[in-house]
UniProtKB/TrEMBL annotation:
InterPro entries: PEP-util_enz_mobile_dom (IPR008279), PEP_util_AS (IPR018274), PEP_util_C (IPR000121), PPDK_AMP/ATP-bd (IPR002192), Pyruvate_phosphate_dikinase (IPR010121). GO terms for molecular function: ATP binding; kinase activity; pyruvate, phosphate dikinase activity. Its cofactor is Mg(2+). It is an enzyme of class 2 (transferase). It catalyses: pyruvate + phosphate + ATP = phosphoenolpyruvate + AMP + diphosphate + H(+). This is Pyruvate, phosphate dikinase.
């Protein structure tokens, strides 16, 4: 297999592996693609992701094949540029960048200006005719290389630079002269020697391999691991490495560098959007060190900013850039996120990729691109990440509520966020773990802050533009973000901050409006979202395209109503035990549990019957005409018992029984392994009167709703935790008997089904038998995962994260179905069930019913529906449509 692919210059770009992101990474594949359609791409080469995986697996060792392929590929760059690597008279310089399959903003390493040393810097000064530029580039290279490859503290170099500036009374880097930079290089080199005990590497080949190794290694850095876990990126993908001839945005005032989007990534508006900096290198824009300027005249005027936009300052290069934007959108048929450099008036493309966007922008672009004829409805449906819809389903700030606006920054990522101020990522994580909502406030964010950004409701930064790390990552995560709010100043020592004229401290509450860039004191009230406009249009398309039905897991009329607004087509799981916990009835429930005999239990159940009937009636009114799966009591009885002394005392009052007696009885019910204990249908087998009461409540409620409104739901009575055919046979007979009794009493009849959950491996194995007794199966994949893996769903949080980091499970199996393992049981049970009963209804009601990857699997095995919690219903509708495409 080829380990290296060249691009640009005279390189061929016709090997399909080169355009395959899994092989050459997103950046490498797109560079090749851009070069092949004739766009100006500096020549370079890509080392495949396969090589990085091999390198990491084989303990940081390069293969001989790689060494010789890299040497040859370097010759390609030399030939295309007409300069030689390490040539003291006219040196070729390269950049070395990572490029995983999907972009991981700021997560992995980059080295620029590689190939500079004490000799080549003189050559660069001569050929560029710009000594200052040459020495500035060299010091940048030493700085970056020392940080990324040698692992030295970058603070050391920044400090040295600050001292030079202070000594000379300089404010900006641009004030330093060639001699200043030359002196600083000497100092930087001394620093390196002092820190690592050997001089800065002068051999350019050594530099190159050092940088390649650093990029490979960065795949396994801590921050990359956290990012992978948060974004479900498998550990075994590895990263490609791109080595590319340098072009310089820092060659004076006719040079620039920038980041741009072909449409606005926050709102989806169709307008070029971006930032650039004159006389700067790419990292300056992204790192938020200098405040970048607007790309277009329009944007500058709207913002009321002074410094000229690129459209005004560099009309020719801007014109060329606009032409490239249009070519790229037409080619990729999607919004592109671009990095470019202008070197002495000439535009160069350094990167293009499909741009990260907010959910709102994703919807707007998908719908508008259909209107523009760029894509069709199917593609629009495929485009939108179902999980991103979550951002739109949550409350927004009440437009009528008063706002105490302390300052306004850049509207970097829309949405409302309110919470307590925290000043660092670790605190954000700790406070949010203890249940606080927090807003992470930083001068600027770096990849080390990623866990805190994830834990926070929103992010506020004092520095950085719309394409700063904070902005890009926040948009990708769906976190509201206000960036570049320069009125915010943070004092880390006292853990206080000033916003405008207000003094605040960590823990004080603020609210962010990410769409307006506003920062408000206190908590601003919110309103529920409206699911109309682009959202409605896209969901209609999705509904036309999907085969599977989408139901909801709900047990209150409010949840049912909300789920129906979100498009639920029935209830897939109503956990009746949730009704037992209600304050008004827990006492009757406890009396039932503590009863010494059946008569005592029946007495308590008589109190519960009208309550349950009322619950079901309220739900059925909302769900009239739709199928409703009602599960009979599932958890072990002791879960309902009192825990604290005061609860025991209350119960003693209510029952007239002594506290000691109650505690003894509770002790008798104690189980070592309640999840595998007296629960589910085992309760129905041992205490049939409980299931009788529930069945009666259900049928009486259906009959009542039928009588009242003329339209009943279709109750599907579900028996949990069945392992054997006989269990279901006994309990189905019980339900049918109660149904007949109620129909007789009511003089009415309704349709209903009796079925079971498949949530034990034995049930999956015996599905062919069990299907004789049940009209439907609902896969309870929470318990099925727990019992198949032998991993406790309630205890796994403590050890699953490292399991995912180490690639033992690609994702948390309680979140995303273990398709390889548990999936086999689901598929087998579906097949065996259908073999016995061809029209058996099949669905899923475990948490996985709201997870897109699991939903895709459900489509594959031909389930009839998935069921998800109300907020996940739209996600499931879209994911089901994508699965059907
Ligand atoms: C399941 O086990 O998947 C399920 C839906 O039931 P519960 O989560 O209530 O155990
Ligand atoms: Mg279960």
């Amino acid at each position: 297999q080829q380990t290296v692919y060249t691009f640009g210059g005279a390189a061929p770009h016709d090997d399909p592996r080169q355009r395959d992101k899994t092989i050459t990474g997103g950046k490498g594949a797109n560079l090749a693609e851009m070069a092949s359609i004739g766009l100006p791409v500096p020549p370079g080469f890509t080392i495949t992701t396969e090589e990085s995986v091999r390198y990491l697996r084989e303990g940081a060792d390069f293969s001989d094949a790689l060494r010789s392929d890299v040497a040859n590929a370097l010759k390609h760059i030399e030939a295309a540029v007409g300069k030689n690597f390490g040539d003291a008279a006219d040196p070729l310089l390269v950049s070395v960048r990572s490029g995983a399959r999907v972009s991981m903003p700021g997560m992995m390493d980059t080295v620029l200006n590689l190939g500079l040393n004490d000799a080549t810097v003189e050559g660069l000064a001569n050929t560029s005719g710009d000594e200052r530029f040459a020495w500035d580039s060299y010091r940048r290279f030493i700085q970056m290389y020392s940080d990324v490859v040698l692992g030295l503290d970058h603070g050391l170099f920044e400090e040295a630079l600050e001292i030079v500036k202070e000594d000379n009374g300089f404010y900006a880097d641009t004030e330093l002269s060639a001699d200043d930079w030359r002196a600083l290089v000497t100092e930087f080199k001394a620093l390196v020697e002092q820190e690592q005990g050997k001089p800065f590497p002068q051999d350019v080949t050594e530099q190159l391999w050092g940088a390649i190794a650093a990029v490979f290694d960065s795949w396994d850095s801590d921050r990359a691991k956290v990012y992978r876990r948060l974004n479900d990126i498998p550990a075994d993908w590895g990263t490609a490495v791109n080595v590319q001839a340098m072009v310089f945005g820092n060659m004076g005032d006719t040079s620039a560098t920038g980041v741009a989007f072909t449409r606005d990534p926050a709102t989806g508006n169709r307008a070029y959007y971006g930032e650039y900096l004159i006389n700067a290198q790419g990292e300056d824009v992204v790192a938020g060190i200098r405040t970048p300027q607007y790309l277009t005249k329009d944007a500058r005027e709207t913002a009321g900013a002074k410094p000229l936009s690129m459209e005004e300052a560099m009309p020719d290069a801007y014109g060329e850039l606009a032409r490239v934007f249009d070519l790229l959108e037409a080619h990729y048929k999607d919004m592109q996120d671009i990095e470019f450099t202008v070197e002495r008036g000439k535009l160069w493309m350094l990167q293009t990729r499909s741009g990260k966007r907010t959910a709102k922008a994703a919807l707007k672009m998908a719908v508008e691109m259909v209107g523009e004829g760029l894509i069709d409805e199917q593609e629009a449906v495929r485009r939108v990440d179902p999980m991103a819809l979550d951002q739109l389903l949550h409350p927004t700030l009440d437009p009528d509520a008063p706002r105490d606006v302390m300052t306004t920054g850049l509207p970097a990522s829309p949405g409302a966020a309110a919470g307590k101020i925290v000043l660092d990522a670790d605190t954000a994580e700790q406070w949010s773990q203890r249940g606080d909502k927090v807003i992470l406030v930083r001068v600027e964010t770096s990849p080390e802050d990623i866990h805190g950004m994830h834990a926070a409701q929103g992010i506020l930064t004092a520095r950085g533009g719309m394409t700063s790390h904070a902005a890009v990552v926040a948009r990708g995560m769906g976190r509201p973000c206000v960036s570049g709010a320069s009125a915010v100043s943070i004092d880390r020592d006292t853990r206080t901050l000033r916003i405008g004229d207000k003094e605040l401290k960590e823990g004080d509450e603020i609210t962010l409006d990410g769409a307006k860039g506003q920062v408000m004191l206190g908590i601003v009230p919110t309103v529920e979202p409206e699911l109309v406009g682009d959202f409605g249009i896209l969901m209609d398309w999705a509904d036309k395209l999907r085969r599977m039905r989408v139901r909801t897991n709900a047990e209150t009329p409010d949840d049912c109503r909300m789920a129906r607004q979100f498009g639920a087509e029935g209830i897939g799981l109503c956990r009746t035990e949730h009704m037992f916990f209600d304050a008004g009835r827990i006492s009757a429930v406890r009396q039932m549990i503590l009863a010494e005999d059946e008569a005592g239990r029946r007495k308590a159940l008589e109190v519960l019957l009208p309550e349950q009937r009322a619950d079901f009636t309220a739900i059925f009114e909302v769900m009239a005409g739709l199928p409703c799966t009602i599960r009979l009591l599932d958890p072990p009885l002791h879960e309902f018992l009192p825990h604290s002394d005061s609860e025991f005392a209350d119960l003693a009052d209510a029952t007239g029984l002594g506290v000691d007696h109650l505690k003894r009885r509770a002790g008798e019910l104690h189980e070592f392994n309640p999840m595998l204990g007296h629960r589910g249908c085992r309760l129905g087998i041992t205490f049939p009167e409980i299931y009788e009461m529930q069945a009666r409540a259900i049928f009486e409620a259906v009959c009542a709703v039928q009588k009242e409104s003329g339209e009943a739901p279709l109750p599907e009575i579900m028996i949990p935790l069945v392992a054997t055919r006989r269990e279901l046979e006994i309990l189905r007979a019980l339900v049918e008997r109660v149904a007949e009794e109620v129909f007789e009493e009511q003089g009415a009849r309704v349709d209903y089904l009796v079925g079971t959950m498949i949530e034990l491996p034995r049930a999956a194995l015996m599905a062919g038998e069990i299907a004789h007794e049940g009209a439907f199966f609902s896969f309870g994949t929470n318990d099925l995962t727990q019992t198949t893996l032998g991993v406790s769903r309630d205890d796994s949080a403590r050890f699953l994260a490292p399991y995912v980091d180490k690639g033992i499970f690609p994702r948390d199996p309680f979140v995303s179905l273990d398709i390889d393992g548990v999936g086999q049981l689901v598929e087998m049970a579906a097949d065996r069930g259908r073999a016995t009963r061809p029209d058996i209804k099949l669905g899923i009601c475990g948490e996985h019913g709201g997870d897109p990857a699991s939903i895709s699997f459900c489509e594959e095995v031909g389930l009839d529906y998935v069921s998800a919690s109300p907020y996940r219903v739209p996600i499931a509708r879209l994911a089901a449509a994508q699965a059907a495409l």
